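Supplementary notes for students who missed Thursday's class. We covered one full example, reproduced here. Read the sequence, then the structure, then the short commentary at the end.
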Amino acid sequence: MAIIEESTGRWLGADGKWHHKGMIRIDKQLEDETVNKWVERANELAQQIKQFKLDMYAECYLFDEVVRSDYDAKPVITAKGNMTLTSFDGTKKVEIKVNKLINFDHKLKYAKEKIDEWFAEKTADADDDLKTIIDKYFDVKGDKVDVRQILGLKQLNINHPLWNEAMKIIDESITIAGTKSYIRFKERVNGEIDGVEKTLNLDFSKFPIHEIEILNLANKKKEVKDEQK
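Structure (token representation):
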């Protein structure tokens, strides 16, 4: 809700000044109420989602530890492993994927220099398009290094001492900046073992909501407010 001065009932505005409520337009008061209501609910939801995620991770990794103990397997000290748990009827899954966040240290520029030397030796046979693409991958100054594409260079069938040196330097320049976990919940349509598998959508931006649905709900809320008057 609005920040209100207890002794006077004045509202604090974005300009840093106190304003008498009677001088604030009704639409601005309603706007303030709407924004504060939904930001508060969003904060509550964010906390629920965070707790849901923590609970889910903890229980899945606890399950893993229990199974490990049954087989006298070595306990995992850090929760970093990939995992897929499946319901007994095979219609539901919980997947945890853990990806390493790869970066490169300062030696990456030396790899680029070796590749430039290789291009210089090729002269007439040089592929200008390939050079342009590689320059884009190695945009160190612009901080736009494309990790996936740089690692993909190692898959090219090029056998040349300078190129091989560059690939070796790339290997040595790799650093692990951390890990990022992804959770996916999957189930088969209609709960049938041969049904199409779908991923449950937990991303706000990917929920398909049509304009007519929003308008219908807004009208219902308006009717409720009108009845309460």
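Commentary. Residues 60 and 85 are 8 Å apart (CA to CA). Residues 26-70 form the longest helix (45 residues). If anything here is unclear, bring it to office hours.
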